Amino acid sequence: MLVLVLNAGSSSLKYQLMNPETAEVKATGLCERIGIDGKLVHEANDEKIKLDVTMPTHKEAIEIVIETLTQGEGKVIDSIEEIQAIGHRVVHGGEYFNSSVIVNDDVISKLKKLIPLAPLHNPANIMGMEIAQQILPGKPNVAVFDTAFHQTMPASSYMYAVPYEDYKNHGVRKYGFHGTSHYYVSNEAKKMLNKEDSKVIVCHLGNGSSVCAVRDGKSIDTSMGLTPLEGLIMGTRSGDIDAGVLSYLMEKKDMSAQETVNYLNKKSGLLGVSGISSDLREIIEACENGDERAKTTIDMKCNRIKKYICSYAGMLEGVDAVCFTAGIGENADLIREKVCSGLEFMGIEIDEDKNKVRSDENREINSDNSKTKIYVIPTNEEYVIANDTYKLTKA
Ligand code: ADP
Fold first, then answer.
1. In this structure, what CATH number is given to the domain that contains residue 62?
2. Span from the CA of 9 to the centroid of ligand 1 (angstroms)
3. Do 202 and 211 meet the contact criterion of CB atoms below 8 Å apart?
4. CA dihedral 44, 48, 52, 54 (to 10 degrees)
5. Each residue's pLDDT tens digit, 181-221
6. Residue from 59, 66, 89 nearest 17 by CA
7. How far does the centroid of ligand 1 lie from the alpha carbon of residue 140, in Å?
8. Is 188 part of a structural domain of the chain?
9. In terms of residue numbers, what domain contains 218?
10. Which atom of ligand 1 is found nearest the CA of 280?
11. 11, 41, 122 from 38: Cα distances, Å
12. Among 2, 71, 83, 263, which residue is least crowded by beta carbons within 10 Å?
């Protein structure tokens, strides 16, 4: 039996058809420009198919995905009956959800209540579920939350030092994101360490980036907050910043509160500081060509990660493994090296040659003397979604 994993964004839809028992991926793809014109990239049977198809709404997008999976060149199944269930990536589960759940009216109504906390993401996720229910009637849908893994954080980690009634009345607290990735990677690390009482730090470094401190398999702190803006310096997000900068920028640049938050989310981070790109590869290239601002950008990015590793090692009272994952974490040996350099005093010692090896496999890149393991673990959020969906819906 197969699970269809859907990740609905405001104008996009990522999908993957997977066998959760074997982790075999049958097909993967992306619908983009929904509501504008419509583009589909579908990968299956070792082929990549690109199509321009009109997709006025997500409904047509999901219909096209089903059609492409069952007919023509990209066909991987004979009928939709081979799909057991649909797993949805949901960005915000607030305090309602600490694990994945089967979607029903109550779940949808709770997700609607959370829209103010994730105004861009939750409406798209809800829409994905409602349309999947229409197009694949009778098939169970499961919601898998980016926030759920972090619900184990203690109050001392998730509270902000603002008046307590703002937490009680408005839900102002740290929720954290990338939870499926942090769960997957820390669980793989736990297996590699072969240790139940493990202390693991996961650095998920993609376009969006976050760090998570995981003790005995449970998240105890993470760098993203009420929204994904807090923490590390990301592709276009500033990460941690003096809140005073907001009102100062609003005044100096005559921007509204919303415009300022947008500025910090979309125009800042690697893009804003380097003035080159949000893509780290281009910044590394500029740095190699002697661009000073690019060098500063990379140093800033690495220092922020280092700061979190050290503070989380303190909170965990030691660290068995530091793990790197996602686009930058898995591929950028320069970043891993700069982040780990100077941390030998904490028992973190990278092996330069092992660090340079490129591979899709889980791997250890610390020196033989290193007290702390350093792992590169390719993340697999889709597998977690497919597996949770399978476990919750199998007869
Ligand atoms: P997303 O958060 O969009 O899923 P990814 O996990 O795909 O992001 O990560 C995207 C980031 O990974 C980009 O900044 C890209 O430059 C970076 N990246 C990918 N490959 C490399 C590489 N070989 N060297 C440096 N950075 C890389």
1. 3.30.420.40
2. 19
3. yes
4. 20
5. 999 999 999 999 998 799 999 999 999 999 999 999 999 99
6. 66
7. 33
8. no
9. 195-376
10. 16
11. 9, 10, 21
12. 71
Ligand 1 atom showing the smallest separation from residue 204 Cα:
6
What are the catalytic residues? 146
If asked whether residues 262 and 369 sit together in one domain, one would say yes
CA of 328 to the centre of ligand 1 (A): 5
Ligand 1 center from residue 265 Cα (angstroms): 17
Do 113 and 200 have their domain in common?
no
Residue 242 is given by DSSP the state -
Nearest Cα to Cα of residue 6 among 27, 33, 37: 27
pLDDT in tens, 134-179: 999 999 999 999 999 999 999 999 999 999 999 999 999 999 999 9
- Number of residues written out for the chain: 395
Residues 199, 141 share a domain:
no
How many structural domains is the chain composed of? 2
Q: Judge contact between 232 and 304, C-beta under 8 A.
A: yes
Residue nearest to atom 12 of ligand 1 (CA): 327
pTM, to two decimals = 0.95
- Around ligand 1, the residues with Cβ closer than 6 Å are 206-208, 235, 279-281, 284, 326-328, 331-332
144: phi then psi, degrees, rounded to nearest 5: -120, 120
